[in-house]
Amino acid sequence: MPRTRVTALVLAAAIGGFLAGGSGAVSLALLTDQESDPSTFTTAATFPDVTAPVVSSSVISKTTPYLPGFIRQGGTYYVYANVTDAGSGVATVRANVSSVTTGQTSVALVAGSYSIGGVSYNYRSASLTANAVLTAGSKAYTITATDVATNSVTQGGFSVTVDNTQPAGSAIATTNVGGGVVGRPDLGDTMTLTFTEQIDPQSALAGWTGATTSVVVRITQNGGGDTLTVRDAGNAAQLPLGSVNLGGTNYVTTTRDFGATGTASTMTQSGASITIVLGTPSGAVATQASNTTMVWTPVATVTDRAGNACLTTVVNEAAPADIDF
After folding, report:
1. Is 116 left (phi over 0), alpha (psi -120 to 50) or beta?
2. Of 127, 151, 121, nearest to 52 (Cα)?
3. DSSP designation for 102
4. What is the DSSP letter of 193?
5. 229: how many CB neighbours lie within 10 A of its CB?
6. In sequence order, what E strands does 22-65 have?
7. N or C: which end of the chain has fewer CB within 10 A?
8. What span, in angstroms and rounded, lies between the C-alpha atoms of 127 and 123?
9. At residue 26, does pLDDT exceed 80?
10. Separation of alpha carbons 314 and 125, rounded Å
11. pLDDT digits (tens, 9 = 90+) for 87-103
12. Cβ neighbours for 81, distance < 8 A, ≥ 6 positions apart
């Protein structure tokens, strides 16, 4: 095939590919003056990068979180984003979060490896502080990404929910395992603590995602009503889920740990509720024969998805009084 015809075909194919939507730099291979052999093609021209970066996802989350997408007025937060560029490469990523923090129209996001809520992101801002007075509800923000060739895109459609309401305890209940003795805390019995909204699981236990995890349940004999608390899997510290006065004094005759040995106790989060399943008791337990009313006292250490501290108002078990477990 004549040299000129081969050259024309190569040029036509390369240009056609560019016009069809190719991104990044496109090189044209031209024949040398001596050969029509394709192995001797040399680069003669490069098309410029005219394609902007792609912002595929973004989220805002409080700075000590697991659950993203919520903040509170006056709280600190990060902006996360996933940004890619197929051409010259990403140069800058910036966020306009002025709807949350006054004046912050061009916040720099830094490349790296970040994870929040089980999702990975490749850009994140430094810590920011929301306005001290910020109305509750959805707040929109944008991400602007620019590549090395100065192509730029501003991506909207992102939002964060401002929640300024403190959570509180709402209800407490127990169930007796099938085949268990009513009034006796047995392996497999459950207790469910329900809040007014979902609690961020990592505020209750570091690294917890809400999935079933091992814990130790302690019931302490108390003349004013046996007391139940939840401890970490190593039985080293009490978790900030408050304490439950079981009302009766005959559930145990001395302190018993459930799940420290044998079958572990567990806790699982489902929406606003945390269900605790008793493990193997550390010794003999007793049986409560009369009806009682449990009283749960939450603590302020746990927070909701936005970082609001829990109210410590006591929660009484719903009437009528009964025998628990």
Report:
1. beta
2. 151
3. T
4. E
5. 15
6. 26-30, 42-47, 54-62
7. N
8. 13
9. no
10. 39
11. 999 999 999 999 999 99
12. 55, 57, 58, 93, 95, 109, 121, 122, 123, 124, 143, 145
For 184-213, what is each residue's pLDDT tens digit?
999 999 999 999 999 999 999 999 999 999
> Which residues lie across from 27 on neighbouring strands?
46
Both tokens assigned to 115: 């994870």
226 within 8 A of 249, measured Cβ to Cβ: yes
Tell me which residue has tokens 């994870």: 115
Start-to-end C-alpha separation, the chain: 90
> What one-letter code names the amino acid at 225?
G
What angle is formed at CA 13 by the lines to CA 12 and CA 14, rounded to 5 degrees?
95
pTM of the model: 0.82
> Strand 213-220 relative to strand 227-231: parallel, antiparallel, unpaired?
antiparallel
State the Cα–Cα distance between residues 194 and 294, nearest whole angstrom: 14
Ranking 55-59, 61-65, 212-216 by mean pLDDT, the lowest is: 61-65
Q: Which residues contact 195 (CB under 8 A, 6 or more apart)?
A: 167, 168, 169, 170, 272, 273, 274, 298, 304, 310
97-130: buried (b, 16+ CB within 10 Å) or exposed (e) per residue? Answer: bbbbbeebeebebeeeebebeeeebbbbbeebeb
